[in-house]
Design a protein that fits this description.
Number of strands: 14
Radius of gyration: 27 Å
Structural class: mainly alpha
Number of helices: 29
């Protein structure tokens, strides 16, 4: 057994030494000479100081803040300048922004850029290690074992839990072993199951439909409005309740998009006839398109749902527009207040479905008492796996809406449009069928396409569902083509019940091919999200390298022998270890070498008939996988959506905006009408070219504050979705913003002023706008006289190791901001300081660091079961190469990288060939398609060649 405790420092020292070698021999110019010399000296000092140890207790964890020597080595004076702010240091390192982040006047910028990017990756890896160590809290009954261990094995090293056995009423109970040891075998392991069981063959229930959401924060920090602990009572001083501060007041004061010409926007409903003269102002991201906004709705429909087939509980509850804060006291809103705000006191919404409401049991380890679960738990009524369940189904109701093609049951049903539709609109491959009278559906879904997850249907969902159903069928068509050419060739597929029998192309059954096609489509979706959507969402070099490393490893595909050797070490040595550090934190570190995807799929002696082989690359780090409530919270991304979609016609002039279609008029059945009328090619062009909204305050779509939901049995039948986001977080017990940050290992804020971007000049328009927002936060959330005797958290300590108290570093008795009361969704939208190219805040991002990795680590179909025996040989090649045949390589080296044509770009061209001329110059399908990407992660909004007349570049 190797000694992993020395490997991370040696690995990091090697990287740092390489970076010094890259910088050595430079002859500095006169101006930067001092900075370069100081930086190199700081690098030497950093190496001599060594690397910080992994924290042993929560309050001492890494907060993204490095030593002065490390900051100077990696980013020079700029990195030192902002070390005293709450925000992470790595965003100020060399090479982590655009061209301006590279040093000027140095003989070469390569050495400093390498140090900066490598340093950022090291910081992110330290964060991931400690997130895995401190932020896993399971609600399914296993948490006590995680803390106490079992049978002499430390809790984080446990891999099987009796709580995750199938119950007796499950139809597969006998098949997995019944009352004996439960292990999934046979048909249950060949592909993704309907309800999500048997992804982990030794824990059949894990991640399946109806299992409880997990948490990423300590249980006693949840539901802060209830004051269930002394820390929570001290932190909030009795100021909170479900409706305090008022959610609708927060929405109207802090979220509303202000309009320069309200009549041209019409509260987000646009003008008659989809007039192109309509206009709704919104703050736009120059490097992210509207297709990306709908992509994340497409993803969340796959990952989680608190509702049951479009419904919550039968009871209704208030949603605010009741009170405002005056001198620290909530007072009723007057009629004038209500009219000025535009909120609605009579709005109601259905209450959430709650799983467990009884007070949780407790247990004690050492001198600390723990709860066994959160005070309330909620079921994830979808499968937690990345299994394209929104397309293929997740329970016995949803599967009735999934239509297979009777002419070829391996395919999903697509139907041609009736009438005379132009082929140039992308109609030739057909569209999904509509919901029929015998299909289970709610009244509001009438006229929609028939899909597994039909709730909250939009034009973007219609586009993406049709696209990936076409992709499923494209795979089947190519498989059938190869079968016709080589019917007796081994297709790679195997049956675990008869593993030695070769399955030839001609022998595969429609069900087997359908199952393989689902695996392929699910993996493509995961790859797009990991290597295409996320690197455009987080548009800089460290995140490009980090997210691609999750998939292909830090070494990429350049040295497969080294990657295979590292994979063997991780799976066979670290994965089987009973030592907590080795099996968890070191496992996660060294998995970065070969990458998570395919981990364990190439180990010597693999057998599809052995559970240890099938499951071999999986690691849950001691906590069964399900999405945490906090992950749901940071995916409240409504500001991404514009009020109006700039509709274009590819058959005429793509540079012209033909219409401006109100998004609200493309919901539910209207989405289907719009899709059939406009066509896939035109909607792809429109969503691909338009910029989405920045995730910031004062940028929620106006129509979302005035949604009409006839299904609600309420006086107004309306709801403010922005206010509802706040209410749902409160109902699900999400901690407020500052404690949320502490729980995830980020530095706390001490006042509303900390939200402001300190790099902005004090007389700049940006600074003045941010100051206005700070004043509004103070108006809505208020202030109080602090009491230094009240300790408010045990998740962090002050720099001098003293407890953090109610005064947050201010003198006792000071008037301080109620920063502790700020709702998490408000807080992360208020973060004006962000790393370069981040469409999200660093608070949201740290949640991704943990969960984006875990959903790969925990899924055997992305690790040890990524093999031809499950996917077929064609399926493996299809996922690896982004389609049939060898990988296609992009022209040039975008942002300095030789890279394959991205998966979504190839899927779009393959299934909507009319888009090929538009997509040829596009590198990332989530970057606005007409934008010139410029040099090295430029955020400039300027047209590429051929798009100069597009009016979007004149705004």
């Amino acid at each position: 057994m190797r000694k992993p405790c020395t490997l991370l420092p040696l690995y990091a020292i090697l990287l740092a030494a390489l970076s010094l070698r890259g910088a050595s021999g430079q002859t500095p110019q006169p101006d930067p000479k001092k900075e370069e010399a100081q930086a190199l000296a700081a690098c030497v000092k950093s190496l001599l100081d060594g690397f910080r140890p992994i924290a042993q207790t929560l309050e001492l964890r890494f907060q993204g803040k490095v030593s002065a020597a490390n900051a100077l080595c990696r980013g020079g004076e700029k990195a030192l300048q902002f070390r005293l702010t709450p925000w992470v240091d790595w965003s100020n390192y060399w090479g982590t922004g655009d061209m301006s982040s590279l040093p000027t006047g140095f003989l070469s910028a390569k050495g400093p850029a390498f140090r900066g990017v490598t340093g950022a990756l090291l910081d992110l890896e330290f964060q991931r290690v400690e997130l895995i160590k401190f932020n896993l809290f399971d609600n399914a009954g296993t948490f006590e074992q995680y803390i106490s261990g079992r049978d002499g094995i430390g809790g984080p090293s446990l891999k099987v839990w009796p709580e995750l056995r199938l119950p007796k009423d499950d139809p597969s109970y006998a098949a997995v072993g019944g009352d004996g040891t439960q292990i999934c075998t046979g048909d249950l392991v060949r592909g993704r199951t309907l309800t999500g069981i048997c992804n982990d063959v030794k824990n059949p229930l894990m991640g399946s439909n109806g299992t409880p959401f997990a948490r990423n924060v300590e249980f006693d920090t949840t539901f802060p409005d209830r004051g269930l602990s002394a820390y929570t009572q001290n932190r909030h001083g009795g100021r909170l309740s479900l409706l305090e501060p008022d959610p609708q007041v927060i929405s109207r004061v802090l979220f509303t998009r202000q309009q320069s010409d309200p009549s041209a926007c019409n509260a987000g409903f646009g003008l008659d006839g989809n007039s192109a003269a309509a206009n709704c102002d919104y703050q736009k991201a120059p490097f992210f398109n509207v297709l990306a906004a709908y992509w994340i709705q497409f993803m969340t429909h796959d990952w989680f749902s608190h509702m049951e087939d479009g419904h919550n509980g039968p009871q209704y509850e208030d949603v605010g527009c009741k009170t405002k804060l005056v001198s620290g006291v909530e007072v009723p809103l007057t009629a004038d207040d209500i009219a000025k705000l535009g909120c609605r006191p009579l709005d109601r919404v259905d209450a959430p479905l709650v799983d467990q409401t009884s007070a949780p049991n407790t247990f004690k380890v050492g001198d600390k008492t723990y709860q066994v679960r959160a005070p309330e738990t909620f079921s994830n009524n979808n499968t937690a796996w990345w299994d394209a369940s929104q397309i293929y189904g997740y329970d016995n109701v949803s599967i009735q809406r999934v239509k297979r093609d009777p002419a070829d049951p391996a395919k999903l049903l697509m139907q041609p449009l009736s009438g005379d539709k132009p082929a140039s609109s992308g109609n030739t491959l057909g569209y999904l069928p509509l919901l029929g009278p015998n299909d289970p559906h709610q009244p509001q879904w009438e006229g929609q396409e028939s899909v597994a997850f039909p709730d909250n249907w939009t034009i973007g969902l219609s586009f993406l569902h049709n696209l990936f159903v076409r992709e499923h069928n494209s795979f089947v068509t190519e498989f059938r083509r190869q079968a016709a050419l080589t019917p007796n060739k081994d297709c790679g597929l195997r049956n675990p019940s008869d593993p030695k029998r070769v399955i030839h192309y001609k022998d595969i059954t429609p069900d087997e091919l359908y199952t393989a096609a689902r695996l392929v489509v699910s993996a493509e979706i995961a790859k797009i999200h990991t290597t295409e959507w996320t690197p455009q969402l987080l548009y800089n070099e460290p995140l490009y390298k980090g997210m691609n490393a999750n998939w292909d490893g830090l070494l990429g595909k350049a040295d497969p022998a080294v990657s295979k050797a590292l994979s063997n070490i991780v799976v066979k040595d670290f994965g089987k270890s009973k030592d907590v550090a080795t099996s968890t934190q070191w496992y996660s570190v060294f998995a970065s070498g070969p990458g998570i995807f395919g981990l364990g799929s190439k180990v010597h002696g693999y057998s599809i008939a052995k559970a240890d082989s099938i499951n071999g690359g999986v690691n849950h780090f001691g906590a069964p996988f399900n999405f945490p409530e906090e992950f749901v919270s940071v995916y409240r991304l409504h500001p991404l959506v514009p009020d109006l979609i700039e509709y274009r016609d590819i058959g005429k002039d793509p540079n012209q905006i033909a219409e401006k279609v109100a998004v609200i008029n493309t919901f539910e059945g209207k989405a289907t009408d719009a899709m059939h009328t406009g066509g896939m090619a035109n909607w792809g062009l429109s969503l691909g070219r338009q910029r989405l909204g920045i995730l910031t305050l004062h940028n929620h779509p106006q129509f979302m504050q005035n949604i009409l939901l006839p299904r609600l049995d309420t006086p107004t039948k309306q709801i403010d979705l922005a206010a509802l986001d706040i209410i749902r977080d409160r109902e699900h017990g999400v901690p407020r913003f500052n404690e949320f940050r502490r729980q995830y290992g980020l530095r706390q804020l001490t006042s509303y002023d900390d939200f402001m971007d300190k790099s902005q000049p004090v007389d700049s328009p940006a600074h003045l706008e941010q100051q206005k927002t700070v004043d509004e936060l103070r108006q809505v959330y208020g202030t109080h006289v602090c009491d230094a005797s009240k300790v408010i958290t045990d998740a962090q300590v002050n720099d001098d190791k003293t407890p953090i108290n109610d005064c947050l570093g201010h003198p006792n008795g000071s008037v301080v901001d109620n920063i502790e009361d700020v709702d998490t969704v408000v807080g992360y939208l208020a973060e004006y300081t962000r790393p370069h190219g981040f469409a999200i805040s660093e608070t949201q991002f740290v949640v991704f660091i943990l969960n984006a990795s875990r959903r790969l680590f925990s899924d055997r179909f992305f690790t040890s079961s990524f093999r031809p025996e499950f996917y077929t040989r064609l399926g493996v090649e299809w996922v690896e190469n982004n389609g049939p045949g060898p990988a296609q390589i992009e022209k040039g080296s975008p942002n300095g990288h030789v890279q394959p044509v991205s998966p979504l770009k190839r899927i779009l061209i393959r299934n909507i060939p009319e888009l090929k001329p538009e997509l040829d110059p596009v590198i990332n399908a989530f970057d606005p398609w007409a934008r010139d990407r410029g040099q090295y992660y430029s955020l400039a909004w300027k047209p590429r060649t051929g798009a100069e007349t597009d009016p979007a570049f004149k705004q």
